[in-house]
């Protein structure tokens, strides 16, 4: 995340009260003689994050293999830098011409930055998923994209 900062001088509550009482004003009017406090205002500017979408197709899909893969995907949630993760079955009700029908499980992960994405693949939790489920698949398709501010 990028943080941009700027300083703004604001009158203190005491100086506002004095100005209101002495001048009978409805707003705070501070002069150079009044005590001021320096307030640091930080604006958080989100950097681009990485969207990682994976579509798994089993050679011989079973409810047990699909449920097992989804459960294994959910374990990836604990990895450092994972901002959002969801996994689930293909929705058989979505049958428009543009809907891909060949996959069985979809995984969507958003990483906070490139470093988090780079640490994901070699992580032991990810490697356990690969070792157990990739031999059962006939296809794994990955789409990675930058999302957010760039």
Automatic annotation (TrEMBL):
Residues 50-145 form the Stress-response A/B barrel domain. Residues 1-29 form the signal peptide. The keyword Signal applies. It comes from the Bacteria. InterPro entries: Dabb, Dimeric_a/b-barrel. It holds the Pfam family Dabb. The keyword tRNA processing does not apply. Keywords: Signal. Transmembrane segments: none annotated. This is Stress responsive A/B Barrel Domain protein. It comes from Saltatorellus ferox.
């Amino acid at each position: 995340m990028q943080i941009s900062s700027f300083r703004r001088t604001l009158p203190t509550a005491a100086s506002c009260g004095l100005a209101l009482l002495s001048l009978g004003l409805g707003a705070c009017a501070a002069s150079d003689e009044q005590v001021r406090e320096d307030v640091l205002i930080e604006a958080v500017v989100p950097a681009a994050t990485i969207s990682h979408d994976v579509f798994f197709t089993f050679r011989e899909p079973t409810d047990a293999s699909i449920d097992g893969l989804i459960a294994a995907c959910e374990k990836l949630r604990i990895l450092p830098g994972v901002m959002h993760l969801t996994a689930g079955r293909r929705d058989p009700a979505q049958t428009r011409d543009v809907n891909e029908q060949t996959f069985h499980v979809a995984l969507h992960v958003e990483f906070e930055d490139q470093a988090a994405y780079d640490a994901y693949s070699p992580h032991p939790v990810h490697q356990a998923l690969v070792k157990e489920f990739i031999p059962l698949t006939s296809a794994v398709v990955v789409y990675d994209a930058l999302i957010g501010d760039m």
